[in-house]
Design a protein that fits this description.
single chain; mainly alpha; Sufe protein. Chain: A; two-stranded antiparallel sheet; 2 strands; Fe-S metabolism protein SufE; Fe-S_metab-assoc_dom
Length: 137
């Protein structure tokens, strides 16, 4: 588990303490409040992720070979999912990011069984967009 970014390890520990879906859903909403702000002018079509049922905006920038992402959504639960996804990928280089298994990450958090197919597809679309931004697709 040490290969994970610190914030990803924190997410695993927090979700491990949540015994049921209601607690995990509440925790997701709390994590969603931790997202870095995305300004109104950044909520443009250029930053909109295609393939998501709800609107999701994603921005990425590279510093010293490592990627940092910001994201938001108009759906509260989705903001939580974005937050835990960003916890998993923030600070990774492009090659490591390309190898991230979204399904495995959400399974480790105990969230995969409650993710609808459309939300799961949306998280995969976000990861694909990250890979496009990093030049891996």
């Amino acid at each position: 588990m040490n290969e994970l970014p610190q914030v990803a390890r924190e997410a695993l520990a927090a979700f491990d303490q949540a015994p049921g879906w209601e607690q995990r859903a509440r925790l997701l909403m709390q994590w969603g409040e931790r997202l870095e702000p995305v300004a109104d002018d950044e909520r443009s079509d250029a930053n909109l992720v295609a393939g998501c049922e709800s609107r999701v905006w994603l921005l990425g920038e590279q510093e010293g070979g490592r990627w940092h992402f910001r994201a938001t959504s108009d759906a509260r639960l989705l903001r939580g999912l974005l937050a835990v996804l960003l916890a998993r990928v923030d600070g990774l280089d492009a090659g490591t990011l390309a190898a991230v298994d979204v399904a495995d990450w959400f399974a480790r958090l105990g969230l995969s069984r409650q993710l609808s197919p459309s939300r799961s597809n949306g998280m995969n679309a976000v990861l694909q967009r990250m890979q496009e931004l990093t030049g891996q697709r």
